[in-house]
# Entry
Amino acid sequence: MIRCLAKRGTFSKKIDLVIDATDDEATPNYKTDSGDAVPHVTKEKRPDVRANKHAKKIKVTVYGWKIWLAFDPESGIPVAMKIDGINVADNTHGYEVLDQARKNLDGYSTINSVAFDRGFLDGKLLWQVDNEVKAIVYIPTKSKMEITEEARKIARRAEALALEGKTLDGAIYKERIEEIKHASGKNAWIEKRKTTVVRIRELPCDWWTATGSTSAANSKKFVPKLVNATVVLQWDGAPKDAEKEVVIIDTDPSKNPFAGFDAYDERSKIENTANREAKESWFLEHHPKRSEAGMRVHAYFVFMCMALITTFRQYLKEAEEVESRDEETGITRYRRKLELMNHGKLVVFCGNHFGIFKNNDVMLLAGLTVRESALRGETVEGVLSRYKMLQNTS
# Structure
C-alpha cells in the first residue's frame, strides 16, 4: 500500500524519517500465537489520576506487544511497521523497520535523515544508518554517558563566554525567541518563549562503531567517530536545570546552530499525530479478539487506514485548491461533479431491477422516522407519488 502511495507522488523525493516504538497493551488473558504467556515488562508509570498529572510513578507490570513505526512527519503517514513483544528493547528492530521503509519507498523517495528517541541509542544501529543507509542521524544521549557530561561542560563554558561577548572554539551559542499568541480580540496577548542551544562540532564518540561498544576503543590506534552535539540549555522558556539539559548528537553537516534541535523536535509529531491519534481516535488497543493474531490484524488495519485517510484528505485539499483557481482538471473535475450530483443518494436493487433514491426517502419507505422529512410533512404516499409508483385506485 505504501508503494502505491509513493508511486502516485504522495511523498517528497527526500524524506526525513522519525522512528519510534509504542506499546500496544493487552491483558495476561490473551492467547499468543506460540501458546506461551503474554509478553510483559515491569515499568514505572503514573497512576491514572486525572486530578493529579504529577502523581508519583509506581512500578507496574504491563502486558502486551510493542509496535515500531517509521513515520514521515511531512505527510503524516507511517511508511513501515514491525510488531514484537512489549519486553523487547527499542533498538532491536530499529534497523529492520528502517530497511522496510527504504524498500517501500525505493524508486520514488530516498531517506535523507532519521530521528530516533534515546531508546534506540545503540552504536551498531547508528553505524548502520550512517554507513549503509547513508542517512543523517539525530538522537538524544543518556544523562550518565561520558559524551553527555562532556557536551554539557563545553556548553556551560560557551554560555559563560557568550555573556562576556566572547566565543569558544568549536562551539556556537545561540538564542531564539518564539512568539506564541494566546486568546483573541481584546484579550489577545503574546507569550515569548526563549530556546537556548550550544552546538558543538566534532565531539569524539567511541561507541559509534560497526560492532557497538568495543574494547578496541582503548587502543591508541582507535579512531573514534566524530559527531556534532546540540546542548539545549533552555527549551521554550522552561526553567533551566543543569541535570536535565538535553544533549542531541547528530551527523548533520549544517552550520545552523539549531539544525540538530529542530530535526529532533520533529520527532514529537509521531507521538501526537501517530501514536496518540491511533490509540485515542482509532482505538488501537481495542482489539477485536483477545489474541495476538487479533492484535496484529487490528494494528496493521489501523495504521493502514490512517495512511489512506491522510492521503485522501490531502487529495481533496489539492483538488479544491486547483478548482478554486478555475483550472481545468479534465477527468478529475468530472468525477468531482459527478460525486456532488449523487451526494446523499442510494442505489436499491430488487431482483433484476434497481432504482436511485434519496437517502431520506429510502429510510422513510423502510418505516423509519426521518426528522428532516417529518418537518417537511413528507409521507410514504408522497414519496411513492413523486417516483410515480403510487397506483391509481380511481
Summary: Residues 344-386 form one domain. The mean pLDDT is 89. The CA atoms of residues 143 and 223 lie 24 Å apart.
